[in-house]
TrEMBL record:
The keyword RNA-binding does not apply. Gene3D superfamilies: Fumarase/aspartase (Central domain), Fumarase/aspartase (N-terminal domain). Its EC number is 4.3.1.3. Pathway: Amino-acid degradation; L-histidine degradation into L-glutamate; N-formimidoyl-L-glutamate from L-histidine: step 1/3. Pfam families: Lyase_aromatic. It catalyses: L-histidine = trans-urocanate + NH4(+). GO terms for biological process: L-histidine catabolic process to glutamate and formamide; L-histidine catabolic process to glutamate and formate. GO terms for cellular component: cytoplasm. It is found in: Cytoplasm. InterPro entries: Aromatic_Lyase, Fumarase/histidase_N, HutH, L-Aspartase-like, Phe/His_NH3-lyase_AS. This is Histidine ammonia-lyase. GO terms for molecular function: histidine ammonia-lyase activity. Belongs to the PAL/histidase family.
Length: 522
């Protein structure tokens, strides 16, 4: 789905020795913000490059500078072959297969590798770092394939495909999306291909940048989706003649999870001023408690928020990291380490897939209640115009159920798997790239499930007329109607309306419509 740039999205991002923010990564990856390296970063890169060049002439072997890689780390490489060593490393590791990875993911990967280069801990030359910034600015996106990373020794194959393009080899897509050889794209923009020197090939491929980039993008999207889940839940509680009394602050405070409190506060604000709610706040209403999918929305949505907060802490630490092996230390050492292992990122990627599935699951249950005449409190079966002749939103719920089933499958963790590689030298790997790939599908699926709930709840709120919904939820209904998504009526071609609502959910317009009445939702 296309995403419009946020109003506060920067047009230019400065990459320095300090960490990038989530917003900066999204701005470059998704919205094409330009990139520049600051002076301190260039000085740091130059300083550690001098260390590498001194060690290149040392009689002692140094991993990645004068030796082979992985299981071949004990093989000494003569000086005359070291440039070839770096080229061979990148060419051999650019071994991905499968469909092309999305442009925003590749751009995030490139930016995050550049951010690590800018720390001055990898030993690359200034010109090599500048080449990454030049490709990003020119909109040149290397072709990276779906499969190839085990999430340990970094995202080797994806990063190697990027590095290959920087050297003028392999295939890329230009800013218009046209496929062409990297050498042709670089020449069009007067970018000189990089001729790799000692240590550089290894420095360009040994990081967790792909999985981290996907984590950052997912966190950005989940913030919008979880708030939209509260909007959808408020519409459902209201449309099903439920109560907002259970969302009272003092009741939520009995279980002091911060995400739960924020979700309940959103629900109270969203339902404020609802004539539908007031209509059954009487002794005639005999229901004691609403179903769990209505009553427990803050608990489920709130736990998902808390999980995102934990994942954001991990992402923040990773954005501040300098991941390479070996790494150049400020005092001139070149040291091997295990920081390239993707476990910290992989674990939270898997955790987020679990909560995405659960939030989608409760959303589908709220939707289903609208369609069952035994549970929807006076609405027509399937919200159909002429039940029997019309099927209403019956099959929209089937679509939800199909997506939720897929999300449950995607919630199975990737990070508990490990297949040894490199002749048993790399005998435990994170599979973090796989965890990130499935989380992207989970986020997309969650948006689709929420969109169908919003679509269904909007029709139900229309059917409660002449009673008026709350101003915030009414604004969401008005948004859909203004976008050509019609209200109750005879059956019609439904798929385009679902897809249009998905767009409104993903780009934040559903949330924004409600916030014009509630103020900023949490």
């Amino acid at each position: 789905m296309s995403r419009t740039a946020e109003p506060d999205s920067p047009a230019e991002v400065t990459v320095g020795v300090g960490p990038l923010s989530v917003g900066e990564v999204v701005a470059v990856a998704r919205h094409g913000a330009s990139v520049r390296l600051d002076g301190a970063a260039l000085e740091a890169v130059a300083a550690t490059r001098r260390i590498v060049e001194d060690l290149a002439h040392d009689t002692e072997p140094h991993y990645g500078i004068s030796t082979g890689f992985g299981a071949l780390a004990t093989t000494s490489i003569p000086a005359a072959k070291r440039a070839q060593l770096q080229r061979s490393l990148v060419r051999s590791h650019a071994a991905g297969s499968g469909p092309e990875v999305e442009r925003e993911v590749v751009r995030a990967t490139m930016l995050l590798r550049l951010s690590t280069l800018a720390t001055g801990r990898t030993g690359v030359r200034v010109g090599t770092a500048e080449a990454y910034a030049a490709l990003l600015d020119a909109g040149i996106t290397p072709v990276v394939r779906e499969y190839g990373s085990l999430g340990c020794s970094g995202d080797l194959a994806p990063l190697a495909h990027v590095a290959l393009a920087v050297t003028g080899e392999g295939m890329v897509r230009d800013a218009a999306g046209d496929l062409m050889p990297a050498a042709q794209a670089l020449a069009r923009h007067a970018i000189a291909p990089v001729e790799l020197a000692e240590k550089e090939g290894l420095a360009l491929i040994n990081g967790t940048d792909g999985m981290l980039g996907m984590l950052v993008l997912a966190l950005h999207d989940l913030r919008t989706l979880l708030t939209t889940a509260d909007v959808a839940a408020a519409m459902s509680v209201e449309g099903q003649l439920g109560t907002d009394d259970v969302f009272a602050a003092d009741l939520q405070a009995l279980r002091p999870h911060p995400g739960q409190a924020r979700s309940a506060e959103n629900l109270r604000a969203l339902m404020a001023g609802s004539a539908i709610r007031e209509s059954h706040r009487t002794d005639a209403c005999t229901r004691v408690q609403d179903a769990y999918s209505l009553r427990c929305s803050p608990q489920v949505h709130g736990s998902a928020r808390d999980t995102c907060d934990h994942a954001a802490v991990v992402a923040g630490r990773e954005l501040a990291a300098a991941i390479d092996n070996p790494v150049v230390t400020p005092d001139g050492r070149v040291e091997s380490n295990g920081n390239f292992h993707g476990a910290p990122v992989a674990h939270v990627l898997d955790f987020l897939a679990v909560v995405a599935a659960d939030v989608a699951s409760i959303s589908e249950r709220r939707t289903d209640r609208f369609l069952d005449v035994a549970r929807n409190h006076g609405l027509p079966p399937f919200l159909a115009d002429d039940p029997g002749t019309d099927s209403g939103l019956m099959i929209a719920q089937y679509t939800q159920a199909a997506v939720v089933s897929e999300l449950k499958r995607l919630a199975a963790p990737a990070s508990v798997d490990s297949i040894p590689s490199s002749a048993m030298q790399e005998d435990h790997v994170s599979m973090g790239w796989n965890a990130a790939r499935k989380l992207r599908r989970s986020v997309d699926g969650l948006a689709r499930v929420l969109a169908i709930e919003v679509l269904t709840a909007a029709r139900a709120l229309d059917l409660r007329a002449p009673l008026a919904p709350a101003p915030a939820t009414a604004a969401v209904v008005a948004l859909l109607r203004g976008e050509g998504i019609a209200g109750p009526g005879p059956d019609r071609y439904l798929s385009p309306e679902i897809e249009a609502t998905v767009d409104l959910v993903l780009d934040g317009r559903v949330r924004a419509a409600a916030e014009r009445h509630t103020g900023l939702l949490h």
